[in-house]
Amino acid sequence: MIIMLYYEKRKEDLFSSHGHHMIRKPRGTADILPEEAATWQYIEAKAREVACRYGFGEIRVPTFEVTELFSRGVGDTTDVVQKEMYTFTDREGRSLTLRPEGTASVARALIENGRCSDPMPLKLFYIINCFRYEKPQAGRSREFYQFGCEMYGASSPAADANIIAMASAFIRELGIENVTLHINSIGCPECRPAYREALKNYFKEHEAELCDTCRQRLESNPLRILDCKSPVCSEIAKDAPKSIDHLCPDCDAHMKSLTAQLDAMGIDYVIDTNIVRGLDYYTRTVFEFICPVIGAQSTICGGGRYDGLMKELGGPELPGIGFAMGLSRLILAMNECSKTITANNSPELYIAPMGDAAVTKASAICEGLRREGIKAESDLVGRSLKAQMKYADKIGAHYTLILGDSELESGVAQLKDMTNSTQREVRIDEIAAELTK
Question: Which of 207, 329, 362, 412 could cysteine-pair with 378, CB 3.0–4.6 Å?
Answer without folding.
Answer: 362
